[in-house]
Amino acid sequence: MGVVRLERTLDLAVLISGRGSNLQAIIDACKNPEFPARIAVVISNKPDVYGLERARDAGIDTHVVPHSGRPKAEFEAQLHEVISDYDVNLICLAGFMRILSADFIAKWPNKIINIHPSLLPKHKGLDTHQRALEAGDTQSGCTVHYVVPEMDSGPIIVQKSVPILDGDTPDTLAARVLEQEHIAYPEAIKLVAQKRLKN
Fold it and tell me: Range of 124's domain?
């Protein structure tokens, strides 16, 4: 039975750096037996973050691969080693606050996706909600995309939009966008799985 499940499922490595709210959305989606993915491992570059507790509560293997005080190449080599210990088809960056090198990305071609809190290609990088407000945008949202060496520039899988309201602050806008992130990420994983497993 396990073999059948692997044939119809993507095995995910979810990389986090903090509270793991998008991780929780993926965990919840994976509870549906019809969802075509399961989380094999959760990896954080920081110890003692709440996302690790979420994973442990769900019975998912966890690892901490610290980045602080070490060369990036060494950090990424260990990260690659940990992921390679699992039969992973897709790496999901879910609030993972490290920029991966071109060398690392090349080891996992078309197998890394990320969620970004803007309607790419608008507002790549940080402070997206503040920048959307300062630009006078009428809409914001989130984007799930494939990771390529150029930051926030890979092919788009899913986008969700929200209106920017009068009186919005970066915090109120962020909260509304986050609700859509929790919908978008599982939807994107499902689309990737359907494409990868049914072709």
Answer: 2-198
